[in-house]
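Hi support team,

I submitted a single chain yesterday and got back a structure, but I'm not sure I'm reading the token output correctly. Could someone confirm the output below corresponds to the sequence I sent? I've pasted both exactly as they appear in my results page.

Thanks,
R.
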Amino acid sequence: MPAVRAVLAGGQYVLGSNVAAFEQEMASLCGRRFGVGVNSGSDALLLALRALDIGPGDEVITTPFTYIAPAEAIHQVGARIVFADIHPRTFTLDPADVARRITPRTKAIIPVHLFGQAAPVVELVKLAGQRGIAVVEDCAQAIGATHQGRPVGSFGQMGCFSFYPTKNLGGCGDGGLVVTNDPSLDQKLRLLRVHGVQRRYYHLLHGYNSRLDELQAAILRVKLRHLADWNARRAALAARYSAALAHLPVQTPIVAEGNQHVFHVYAVLCAERDALQRYLQQRGVATIIYYPLPLHLQPVYAELGYRQGDLPVAERVAQQILPLPIYPELTEEQVDYVVAVISEFFGSGPVPPGSDRLPPAGP
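Hi R., thanks for writing in. Yes, this is the structure output for that exact sequence:
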């Protein structure tokens, strides 16, 4: 790839011109002034909380139905994790339940734009703003998605992105980025990602080694040009799935009013989820469950005191959710085969011969 060869020939492998250009391109995509490249989406969340001076004695509200990274970041800064329940069909934070869990110690809310769809971030920003609470958007699974015509990452104080290889915009390794409109947050994030250094060997604060490397930035810049087409392809495949599955006893994804969904994950709800997953596997269709055990019930968070039944919607969704293969290279014939296997499982028709084995696409 010419972009990679150019970086290797240039010899600038850390925080070079491609990183600076990619930061600006991402900021522009999100309608923000600043972008700060870091080494992962997880670190993007951690540095965002550090930039807000969140720490021991503070509380941060987030969702139990997502990857562990938001909760992990809250724990790593020493704050208390507070989980709120989710909407039963979009799987994103329920603003009403968030409101019930706000206390005088609440300093931030981390909504996750899950599976490619925006959380109700306008409601959450309004709720937070009335109380002086920050909003840090987790956009790791939803790059290019919009809410009420605005891109994810453009609503809160900061928006955090991941470029893990399976994401809609994935690198050839780990990578992350934070966008913001606030120059003071931009400056602090830039200090935090390089050991708190303002100039070489002079440290203003305790920081990290968390930089987006030049090779990843060069690759991501090339791939960014194709993101809109790839997202459109995902949406078209999702529409094909939904139309073909409409007559079967599964619940297909909904798109909330005002949202443009980019279908990082296409997940159905099925009362017979485990049996259906085994049936698909036997017929060459690999799937992975996101997420089989909500975070509030994970052993690592036992000390928080949550019990089965505390967040019933997240718990019920975790028992029924089944993501189906979706990625831009998936063919219409492969989608039709997956649908045919599901139809056969429910006794609605035979599977056509000559299928391909389908790998899952993971977040």
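A quick pointer for reading it: The chain has a mean pLDDT of 95. Let us know if anything else looks off.

Best,
Support desk
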